[in-house]
Amino acid sequence: MKEDAREPGPAHGQGAKTMRNGTRLGVDVGSVRIGVARSDPSGLLATPVETVRRGKGDLERIAQIAAEHEAIEIVVGLPTSLSGREGQAAELARAFAARVAARLDPVPVRLFDERLTTVTAQQSLRASGVRAKNQRDVVDQAAAVVLLQAALDAERATGAPPGRPAVPPPGDRPGR
Predict the structure, then answer these.
(1) What is the DSSP letter of 170?
(2) What number of CA atoms fall less than 13 Å from residue 16's CA on the CB side?
(3) What's the domain range around 125?
(4) Checking CA distances to 113, which of 11, 75, 119, 154 falls within 20 to 30 Å?
(5) This prediction's pTM
(6) Residue pair 22/74 in contact by the 8 Å Cβ criterion
(7) Model confidence pLDDT, tens digit, residues 125-172
(8) Number of domains in the chain
């Protein structure tokens, strides 16, 4: 995996925040599919990677994608309501993030608010001419792109990693 180093941005020293160098993955977890996106190594732009079917082998596929792209961090979407409340979907996302964190340790896994990412993705797809019936194949990837781009923008604005850590349950940590 690539080194998690901070490098100064072009306007460093002029109030600009630093951005860690390295590829990140964005993961939008649904009940049937998982959308995956990646950033460029400089952390400027998120692009779609693939849609992974939920079920047997989904965690291994996420691990393979992380290794293929030498990811320095995984950002998992945390679905919350507009009021900020978490429901069953958030519980499922937290559980999946904990499994990813246990599997990919020491690569950090972070939870990031994904409010309205799917709606934004659907609107973008419609605006680009993708018919509603054809959106199913790509909407999860598009939602992962929206999620990851928001996380990248948040890090660029604050200079801190986005969201909060997803800590694996104590029984799932390697070596315990």
Answers:
(1) G
(2) 13
(3) 20-166
(4) 11
(5) 0.79
(6) no
(7) 667 666 666 666 678 898 999 999 999 999 999 999 999 999 754 554
(8) 1
